[in-house]
Amino acid sequence: MRRRTFLGSSAAAGGLGLLAACAPGSDSGGGTNSDGGGGPAASDVETDPAAMGEITLKVWDQEVRGAQNDAITALIDAFQSEYPNITVDRVSQSFDDLQQQTGLALSGNDVPDVLQVNNARGDMGEFVKAGQLMDLSGYAEAYGWEDRFPSSVLSKARYSSDGVTFGEGSLWGLPQTGEVCGIYYSAAKLEAIGAEPPATWDELFALVQTAQDAGEQPLVLGNLEQWPALHVFGPLQAHFVPAEEIVTLAMGNAGAEWTSDPNVQALTQLADWASSGAFGDSPNGLAYDTAWAEFTEGTGVMLIGGSWLAPDMEAVMGEDLRFMAPPAGVDGTVATTGGTGLPFGIPAQAANPDAAAAYIEYITSDTAMELIAEKGGMPVLRTAELAPASGVNKDAYEAFDAVSNDGVLLPYLDYATPSFADTAGAALQEVIGGQSDPSAAAEALQADYGEFTAEG
Predict the structure, then answer these.
(1) Closest to 300 measured CA to CA, from 193, 202, 393
(2) Which terminus of the chain has a smaller tally of CB atoms within 10 A, N or C?
(3) Is the whole-model pTM more than 0.70?
(4) Secondary structure (3-state) at 261
């Protein structure tokens, strides 16, 4: 996805036996769960892959880079070794290519059994609405996914069966990896200006001023592509706006207002940082990848961004690079933008749904989490436990664990509506560039969100 830019090896993963008589999209027992979303009831799920007969399982994913590919390849090899009756026919492709192919595949007759699906409204939400994905609630009960996964993680793949409500309802996918936006900083630069990592937002604002007074650029942002500003604004917004309200806005559910005073205050703070030069001379003219590369070479004291940048930046900065979750938000808990890798779902017309669910269970198991961490990715479960012994990835793992389990993992703001990525990207870029005042930007955001929720 656009928000995840991985480089190099960085993370950011015969006959049909017992299923021969099943219609596509059904399980061996033919039952449905209580939500009526088209998946099997837990009591009808076959959970022993060895008992499923000879199967070729078609899997589509976008785990094509470095640690991602290493982990998924190793897991597939292990799965096939343990269950030689199941052959995994894997098709891996870039996110953009997968996104283009998914809509065509789900509307046709030749669908994969397992499919990674972007969980934003424009993708997963539309597929749920069209009845093209299988409700995994029965599988979740059979495998205990509700017990293993934090609710804040599962909410990123929940929709009502009509696709109207995001974050609640049935489960349509299960992720392997985690992501969190936080504050990168140079330990040496903080020491040089006599500062400590900020424990509160007031301390963060003071640190920005201290850095400027010392002749340092406080914050690094490359916002040429527009979307990077969302990763700065999301954590900042939590200082002004209650987390529950941000979740409502970001999920595109009715009940909140972008034009509220706290949201305008958050936009005003972003504008103030930009106008004061805290982001440098021209953040809107600087590319995302150029910006973080410049940070590793000595530009700036802090960079607010995603955990997926840690391995590449650490390769240059070593132990000088540190990462922390943002300070607690207005309601007293740590809340920051974050999420998961693309969830693995099952198309409604999949030929082998029980085997597909068994595969998803296998690649999200405790053992899988250990392997993902070993290969350099950030597992979505047991994250702090599996963190490296030291370094910035240890910081990032622990931050994700704390936010996803004890805080609020705020949705990416571009989840809100099918057009919100463009709307928010343009609005924030104009605020940063001084072409739009915070109130006007809030009105633009509200227009998109309000129109969408009214239609729902």
Answers:
(1) 193
(2) C
(3) yes
(4) helix
